[in-house]
UniProtKB/TrEMBL annotation:
<dbReference type="Pfam" id="PF01264">
    <property type="entry name" value="Chorismate_synt"/>
</dbReference>
<dbReference type="GO" id="GO:0004107">
    <property type="term" value="F:chorismate synthase activity"/>
</dbReference>
<feature type="binding site">
    <location>
        <position position="328"/>
    </location>
    <ligand>
        <name>FMN</name>
    </ligand>
</feature>
<keyword id="KW-0521">NADP</keyword>
<keyword id="KW-0028">Amino-acid biosynthesis</keyword>
<keyword id="KW-0285">Flavoprotein</keyword>
<dbReference type="GO" id="GO:0009073">
    <property type="term" value="P:aromatic amino acid family biosynthetic process"/>
</dbReference>
<feature type="binding site">
    <location>
        <position position="286"/>
    </location>
    <ligand>
        <name>FMN</name>
    </ligand>
</feature>
<comment type="function">
    <text>This reaction introduces a second double bond into the aromatic ring system.</text>
</comment>
<keyword id="KW-0288">FMN</keyword>
<comment type="subunit">
    <text>Homotetramer.</text>
</comment>
<feature type="binding site">
    <location>
        <position position="39"/>
    </location>
    <ligand>
        <name>NADP(+)</name>
    </ligand>
</feature>
<dbReference type="GO" id="GO:0008652">
    <property type="term" value="P:amino acid biosynthetic process"/>
</dbReference>
<dbReference type="GO" id="GO:0009423">
    <property type="term" value="P:chorismate biosynthetic process"/>
</dbReference>
<comment type="pathway">
    <text>Metabolic intermediate biosynthesis; chorismate biosynthesis; chorismate from D-erythrose 4-phosphate and phosphoenolpyruvate: step 7/7.</text>
</comment>
<dbReference type="GO" id="GO:0005829">
    <property type="term" value="C:cytosol"/>
</dbReference>
<dbReference type="GO" id="GO:0010181">
    <property type="term" value="F:FMN binding"/>
</dbReference>
Amino acid sequence: MKYSIFGESHGPAIGVLLNDIPAGVTLDMEEISLEMGRRAPGKSAISTARKEADVPEVLSGLCGGFTTGAPLCAMIKNTDARSGDYSLLKRFPRPGHADYTAAARYDGFADMRGSGQFSGRLTAPLVFAGAVAKQLLAARGIFVGAHIAAIGGIRDIPLTDGGFLKDKTAETVLRAAARKELPVIDDGAGEKMREAIAAAKREGDSLGGLIECAALGLEAGIGEPGADSLESLISRACFAVPGVKGIEFGAGFAFAEMRGSAANDPMEMADGRVSMRTNNNGGVSGGISTGAPLLFRAALRPTSSIAREQDTVDMEERVNAKLVVPGRHDPCIVHRAVPVIEAAAALALLEAVQKLYGIRGLCGRRQ
Ligand SMILES: Cc1cc2nc3c(=O)[nH]c(=O)nc-3n(C[C@H](O)[C@H](O)[C@H](O)COP(=O)(O)O)c2cc1C
Ligand SMILES: C=C(O[C@@H]1CC(C(=O)O)=C[C@@H](OP(=O)(O)O)[C@H]1O)C(=O)O
């Protein structure tokens, strides 16, 4: 599953080119639009004020309602750029954003209007690609969903609690969360998160958090050992999402403080099938799926563009300087990043499934 994302935040358009899509698949465009809408900016006071419709225009790979097998290319127009907000930032780079590293890497030639190719805006085409991947995975009985695990220290109910995974209601609660602006299981926690984001914004600050993502219906035996392990593919896809700074699978960093007797997932036969009584390994062992729900969490940093005065440098005069970042910014990116993390996970899983079953094995109409 190869995909390339193109464009810059204040250029004419952004988009994605997806290869290795099986021919003869009907894509549910309405479902894709819903996914795009979950991420789209400009919807409320807890997100950026930039307004974009984020309607994808398919340029190739789809004809008469079926995929053709040619690379699938989708383009999304940029319509609400305000590039003046960025005129100062080449000279006074924002701490925590990519202004300084982009200048170092691209010798000062990077188009940093709207943060250029580093912008969270580039996650719109990723969501398009992920929505296609989700439909292909669904045809194999695999569901990918996520929710906000925490924002600013306020926690939602973890999927591992409440029996959601055991009684198989996880898909239902994740589908319900996906319809909310703050995709949470516990609406009370969601309201507290909303207030915390609004308060941070009033204080000229921002909040970070955690996203918990699950893949359900994944059979045992998908993945590889080594550099193409399931963890590697998923981490690689998630670290391509701007703002992601950490990933953990299952018990993750808590493993460091556990004993083997507590960390191991006891095995048993249940209805004639191998199963694990606990899921500390997050559904992956040796880089390969165990057949238990695949579970991981991504940590997102607080938005770097905050309204408070910060210490930076003057790249022209080579002296210390102060900066107040102008412009429209997300006071928190976690809620908008939930469909993005799902998309990244779906693309990574599709790559692993495709490696085992091939392109036609995904769900193309057999000739
Ligand atoms: C959906 C989304 C929206 C984002 N919105 C903003 C924003 O408004 N302002 C900002 O400074 N960073 C925003 N970010 C994060 C930056 O793009 C990111 O921190 C920056 O590119 C540096 O990358 P890094 O944090 O991965 O190191 C957003 C990220 C995502 C995924
Ligand atoms: C436009 C989006 O988010 C943008 C992500 C972003 C950043 O630095 O990542 C900075 C802001 O860009 P601008 O200054 O052009 O308004 C956000 O609005 C989007 O996600 O669609």
